[in-house]
Amino acid sequence: MSVEPEIFALLDANKKDDDFNEGRVLEQLHRRHERNRTGVRKKIAQVLAATGKLACEACGFDFQAVYGERGKGIAEYQHIVPLSEARERKTRLDDLVVVWANCHRMIHRASSMWTVEEVIWISFVLWRNWDNADPSTPHPELVFPLLAPLGFSGVFNTF
């Protein structure tokens, strides 16, 4: 595991100042793009009706399959064309994808956002060895249909 050198610079074994202040209330003014929660609920209902589960459309992870009832309904969403790249507009359900928090975080991690397709691709590159995969790793058959519109075949080793 690689850790940035700056993080190690924060740790000094000779110092005893491992406590810090938090919790102060700050006032902030933000501009953000309006999101319509009704549209999100409709997208989640659409995915549930079509698949019977609420799995991440980027990596296939299903919180309920792993965490049981506690994981039911855990999902975020991503606009295929980010709201920041367009003015006010009509959004269709097909303009949204259901993602889980880690994939969503990776999409937004830098100023040049990744697309959902890029996250799908990276997920497959990282999860090449399906025989030794973690039990929560989705089987390729669950995720290959997501790659078909991108032109990828169902034969994994041809990527």
Automatic annotation (TrEMBL):
<dbReference type="GO" id="GO:0008270">
    <property type="term" value="F:zinc ion binding"/>
</dbReference>
<dbReference type="InterPro" id="IPR002711">
    <property type="entry name" value="HNH"/>
</dbReference>
<dbReference type="GO" id="GO:0004519">
    <property type="term" value="F:endonuclease activity"/>
</dbReference>
<feature type="domain" description="HNH">
    <location>
        <begin position="56"/>
        <end position="109"/>
    </location>
</feature>
<dbReference type="Pfam" id="PF01844">
    <property type="entry name" value="HNH"/>
</dbReference>
<keyword id="KW-0378">Hydrolase</keyword>
<protein>
    <submittedName>
        <fullName>5-methylcytosine-specific restriction protein A</fullName>
        <ecNumber>3.1.21.-</ecNumber>
    </submittedName>
</protein>
<dbReference type="GO" id="GO:0016787">
    <property type="term" value="F:hydrolase activity"/>
</dbReference>
<dbReference type="GO" id="GO:0003676">
    <property type="term" value="F:nucleic acid binding"/>
</dbReference>
